[in-house]
Amino acid sequence: MSEDYVIQVKNSPLDVNPTEWDALLLTQSNPSPFMRHAYLAALHHSGSAVPTTGWTPHFVTVHQGNQLVAASVLYEKNHSYGEYVFDWAWANAYAQHGLLYYPKAVGAVPFTPVPGSRLLARTPEARATLVQALLHWCEQSGMSSLHLLFLNDADVSVCEQAGLMLRHTVQFHWQNANPGYTDFDTFLQSLSQEKRKKIRQERRKVADAGVSFRCAKGSDITTADWDLFYRCYARTYLEHGNAPYLSRDFFQRMADTMPEHWLLFTAERDGMPIATSLIALDASKVAYGRYWGALERVDCLHFEACYYQPLQWCIAHGYDRFEGGAQGEHKMARALMPVKTTSAHWLAHPAFADAVARFLEREGQGIGNYLEELEQRSPFKPKE
Fold first, then answer.
1. Checking DSSP bridges between strand 272-282 and strand 286-294, what pairing results, if any?
2. Residue 272: inside a domain
3. What CATH number should be reported for the domain holding residue 197?
4. Where are the strands (E) in the chain, listed by range?
5. What letter would DSSP give residue 95?
6. Which domain holds residue 17?
7. Which site among 47, 197, 276, 353 is 20 to 30 Å from 335 CA-CA?
8. Alpha-carbon distance 105 to 144, whole Å?
9. C-alpha angle 339/344/348, rounded to 5°?
């Protein structure tokens, strides 16, 4: 590593200069709101991603002179919940051989499977230095492994050069036309007749059930709206027997520190709210489907709240892309197309690293075949 670089590891977002961090983030090709200092700090201060929930933060910074030239956040973890790149089988294999898989280090935004910059850096050299700093910290701290999740292209490239193993998963994203669709009906015209008919039927079911929608953006989302949203969000988890990952205080911090990044759809029937869908927005005209919940069951309400209302809004406001989150082939019928996402992995144990490398090679071939198969099922009209 260059002697010009000063590397530090800090254990709280309070120890990191927010202005420096966000200025560095804005130089990246994918400066998503989820890597903003305020977002990471809210996860910490709300008690959502803290040591007691199995997320111990370590902010790694690289300075050159007085300038922050690279930075990342690692979480020391004793479980694999809230990551969306699944390594439970790896942990089980370690246990079967009498080895400890935890603690491990994860470079990710907790509970947020959104691709973007994880290794913030001003230059390729600074990014390479940061990766080496992360690996060195993991070795010195006795981590079994390092997992960098949902990376952008620059991150993938530097990780590959550093010898990390790459792993691929599939998400489903909607892409606006170029030039953009003029309205939702124009978008529907780009789909096959079968898919177009299905979407219209689903939308009609919701309308015929007497459900209407209102949306609020930024500071127009009231405290009562946030309270309602949290009731809906928490209920979704509780119905599956789980506690919500994120606390009400986390969303209050979003309202206080990052209101411009949020769009809330509220479904109402007979003047009463029955469901909400919360969308994240970034300045580069990308929207992210994040959270939803319902207090009543209505056929097709989920599709309307989570896909059709957001897509209609994105078209009306000239957004380029809508990312639908982790998993879900059903999203293809709503014109969200498969996209390969990539993570990078390092395992300290040489024999297990070799075994995982062989596994990832087989898994990667399977993902490639899966993507090819999905492409054959495109909901769009054949190009003439």
1. antiparallel
2. yes
3. 3.40.630.30
4. 5-10, 55-64, 67-77, 104-107, 120-121, 145-148, 165-175, 211-217, 262-269, 272-282, 286-294, 321-326, 337-347
5. H
6. 5-170+340-375
7. 276
8. 8
9. 155
| Structural tokens at position 207 | 């309308």
For residue 99, give both structure tokens. 């080895």
User: 103 and 71: one domain?
Assistant: yes
Cα atoms in the 13 Å half-sphere on the side-chain side of 174: 33
SS percent in the chain: helix, strand, coil, step 5: 45, 25, 30
> Are 110 and 137 in a shared domain?
yes
For residue 215, pLDDT over 90 is answered with yes
Residues 153 and 185 in one domain: no
**Which DSSP letter does residue 354 get?**
H
Q: Is the Cα dihedral 343, 347, 350, 353 positive or negative? A: negative
φ/ψ (deg, to 5) at 294: -135, 145
Task: Give the chain's length.
Answer: 384
| Amino acid letter, residue 234 | A
- Strand, coil or helix: what is 151? strand
Cβ atoms of 274 and 298 closer than 8 Å: yes
Give the single-character DSSP code of 246. S
Residue 216, C-beta contacts closer than 8 angstroms, at least 6 positions apart:
222, 225, 263, 264, 266
Q: What is the DSSP letter of 85?
A: S
Ramachandran region of residue 35, left (φ > 0), alpha (ψ -120 to 50) or beta? alpha
Instruction: Tell me if the pTM is above 0.90.
Output: yes
**Letter for the amino acid at 153?**
D
Query: How confident is the model over 334-359, as a mean pLDDT?
Result: 96
Domain shared by 135 and 196, yes or no: no
How many domains does one find in the chain?
2
- Determine, yes or no, domain membership for 380: no
Whether 181 and 199 share a structural domain: yes
SS3 of residue 27 by DSSP: coil
Residue with tokens 């596994």: 359
DSSP 3-state of 195: helix
Same structural domain, 112 and 163: yes
> What's the whole-number mean pLDDT along residues 129-154?
98
Beta-carbon contacts of 261 under 8 Å, excluding residues fewer than 6 positions away, are 33, 254, 280, 281, 282
Do 258 and 296 lie in one domain? The reply is yes
